[in-house]
Design goal:
49% helix; 6 strands; alpha+beta
Length: 168
């Protein structure tokens, strides 16, 4: 499979994939880690992969039996698989709804303190053996809290709402 010859042809699609990458990183940086925007972020990104895969497939349809064009077919298969994997938990949560847990047994873990918005802190709930990403603005109030109520989507691992019931 002569990949160097194929790379020159793939640069024609570079603006489409660069735009997808820019939208992905913009969603990761600017959308919050909690609530509806956080739940719909993987669905948006999965839906963004489908037109990219379709565009790549349609531009290569006439050469699909040639060995040097197997790389774009693998990209299409990978994009389709990623879209299904990203969209499935969100769809299951939209069908099944959210769950609510009131607990005193929780702690906050610092996962990547150098990042600005997404994934800096995680709320660990041992009662359900799951941890959730939280926004940085909830770190200090949750450190002082003794009892919280958390509404979450179980399949996606995203918090819908946090209520502080008691604090120190």
């Amino acid at each position: 499979m002569p990949l160097p010859h194929n790379f020159a042809d793939l640069y024609r699609e570079a603006p489409v994939f660069a735009a997808c990458g820019a939208v992905y990183f913009a969603c990761d940086i600017f959308l919050p880690n909690e609530g509806w925007p956080a739940l719909l972020r993987p669905l948006l990104l999965a839906l963004l992969l489908i037109p990219c895969a379709r565009y790549l497939w349609r531009t290569r349809r006439h050469d699909r039996l040639n060995w040097r064009y197997q790389y774009p077919r693998l990209c299409v298969a990978a994009a389709g698989t990623a879209a299904i994997i990203m969209a499935a938990p969100v769809c299951l949560d939209l069908i099944g709804g959210s769950k609510t847990l009131t607990t005193r047994d929780f702690h906050i873990r610092e996962s990547m303190p150098d990042r600005y918005n997404s994934g800096g802190f995680r709320l660990v709930l041992p009662a359900i053996r799951q941890d959730f990403p939280i926004d940085n603005r909830h770190y200090h109030p949750l450190n002082r809290a003794t009892e919280i109520r958390v509404a979450y989507w179980p399949q996606s691992g995203i918090i819908q709402r946090i209520d502080i019931l008691q604090s120190r």
